Amino acid sequence: MKKYLIIIALIMCASANLNAQTELIYNGGVYQNNIKLLPKEVKELFKDDSVALSKYKSGRIFYITGKCIFYPSAIYTGLSLCGLFIVIPDRMGMTILAVNTAIGGAGMLIGYLIYNSGTNKMKNAVNIYNTNINNNKVSVNLGLTENGIGMNIRF
What we know:
It is built from four helices and five strands; from the N terminus they run H-E-E-E-H-H-H-E-E. The chain is α+β, with helices and mostly antiparallel strands. Strands 1-2-3 form a three-stranded antiparallel sheet. The chain has a two-stranded antiparallel ribbon with strand order 4-5. A hairpin with a 2-residue loop joins strand 2 and strand 3.
């Protein structure tokens, strides 16, 4: 009887090691076991899942593009607002500064929308990866069968 219990315990330990892939979390970056992964490491994890990899790559491009549009637009808007409120020019100058502020604000909005779209794509890629590793897990269960107690291995 002890041999059977030892064998069952060894099989369960082996199945735990087969499930070694841990889920990823997206929170402003991709994390695995509370360690932030570099984009290169994420691409390496996603190499077997073409859908997740393509979503991650396109999301990363949108994420970076959105930041590259948002931050310069924010600086432009800030400088325009400084000119609008600090320097008190004539009426024509105020109109030009107001238009510049509106242009900078529109750039900020567009940059934020692109950035947010990229973030959502990367979250979707992580969710796809997590779903796929959950579907590929090996499970070992003990339960009742037609012949008595049995072991069920599902992979």
